Amino acid sequence: MAFDINSIIILATLFVIFGVFLLFDLFKRNEKYGYLAYIVAVIPVNYFWYLIYDVDVLAVYVLLFLLWDIVLLRDTIGIYLHKNKEINDMVLYLFLGIIIQIIVAAILPEAAEELQTNQVDRFLYFYFPDIYTGSWATEAWVNSTILTAFRVAATLLVLLVIFPLILDI
Question: Which residues make Cβ contacts (< 8 Å) with residue 37, sequence separation at least 6?
């Protein structure tokens, strides 16, 4: 599927919905709907994957990890500065988002077969980016800039999960 005006409007709407959940705490309702931003981030990212299936699937995961990093930063600030967040809820909703992304990585390429490119490898039922050859060299299709961004975003994601847990001990 290509980018046309309808797909751009849908993608922008999905990102606005993510932004509402990201900024839900500004409404001062004392409800935990802000944590749903971890799960809602999966929706626009996978729609984006569906739109740019022929470009680079690793860029989609970079975008997903960056959205999760933004939500983790928001929650880390909420934990230590405003004292209105819980570490347990933060980790729970992040892992729910990861599980939902793994499930979507199994369903979406089966529903849209154009997503089954040489960039994704099927592991059991799940399609994940395969960036290495059998000899652990980088595949030819991998953009080194996107790979570096992916590594930085994944490292930041892990640090933003571990850092609050260590400080809570």
Answer: 18, 21, 22, 24, 71, 74, 93
Cα–Cα separations (whole angstroms), residue 130 to 4, 48, 73, 137, 160: 29, 19, 28, 11, 25
> Of 52, 42, 58, 45, nearest to 130 (Cα)?
58
SS3 label, residue 76: helix
pLDDT of 97 strictly over 80: yes
> Mean of the pLDDT values across residues 111-133?
67
Residue from 59, 77, 64 nearest 18 by CA: 64
d(CA 90, CA 10): 28
With b meaning 16 or more CB within 10 Å and e meaning fewer, what string describes 99-122? ebbeebbeebbeeeeebeeebbee
Three-state SS for 2?
Answer: coil
pLDDT, tens digit (0-9, with 9 covering 90-100), for 36-78: 999 999 999 988 888 876 667 888 889 999 999 999 998 888 8
pLDDT at 1 over 60: no
Q: What is the pTM (predicted TM-score) of this model?
A: 0.87
